[in-house]
Amino acid sequence: MSLELDARQRAMLQEMGVTVWAAPPPRPAPEPVPAQPTAAHAEAAVPPPMQAAAPAPARRPTPEPAARAAPAGAPPGGLLLGAPQALYPQADPAATPPGLGEAWLVVLESPTPGEPLAGEVGRLLDNMLRAMGLHRHPRTFVATLGRPAPGLPAEGVEPAAGLQQALATLRPAMVLVLGLAAARAVLGSREPLGRLRAATHRLADGTPAVVSYDPAYLLRAPEAKAAAWADLCRALALVRHTAAG
């Protein structure tokens, strides 16, 4: 699935490590080379047999991440869902591109829950959302999943309850679920990430959800970035189709 991308979005995709292919300009036809005269009785040269090159070993993709086990005393799944945060509150609503819906909610496990756009993981998340145009939507929210630290008060709520409250408050057009841990917390499914990515999910209130790789995994496995971009394009297409209908 392809999208019409401007120069800035193409730059963001390059930051993600995704190559955007464009049709090359047509090449001019080569000038004909005059034939060289040959001797009448010269023997035809027999080309030496070509030796087939050994195929290059295929690069094995980095295995998909597995959800970590919950520590003792943690809630089911070991994760708590934080309150949604607006990622781009300074965006002008009048300049929001059409077809993005009323709001977006991104759910992922973040190493910096209080600052989801901090560090390398946060920068890649920011680039992903900017490539989608969501940096121009003031109602783009993120709800981070975190594991309670031993001896410290828990921050957040049980994921199912927190998600239900967020959906009722924000009424997002799409929930973007990044990573296996987030997918299992949001969907309650034990399916592998590849199968969860292949489907479009409906949450309890009917809100659509699309699953993709989380930025932390993409930093470890950059070969998966193109597949992640395809997931993001599918989420955008679903929202635009709903808005157009």
From TrEMBL:
Q: Name one GO biological process term.
A: DNA repair
Q: Which UniProt keywords apply?
A: 4Fe-4S, DNA damage, DNA repair, Hydrolase, Iron, Iron-sulfur, Metal-binding
Bias category Pro residues: which stretches? 23-35
What's the superkingdom here? Answer: Bacteria
Gene3D superfamilies annotated for this entry?
Answer: Uracil-DNA glycosylase-like domain
One Gene Ontology term of the molecular function aspect: 4 iron, 4 sulfur cluster binding
Identify the residues that the record assigns to the Uracil-DNA glycosylase-like domain, covering every copy.
111-232
* Residue ranges of the region described as Disordered: 22-78
Supply the Pfam families for this chain. UDG (PF03167)
Q: Where is the composition biased (Low complexity)?
A: 36-57, 65-74
Q: What name appears for this protein in its UniProt entry?
A: Uracil-DNA glycosylase-like domain-containing protein
| Species this chain originates from | Alicycliphilus denitrificans
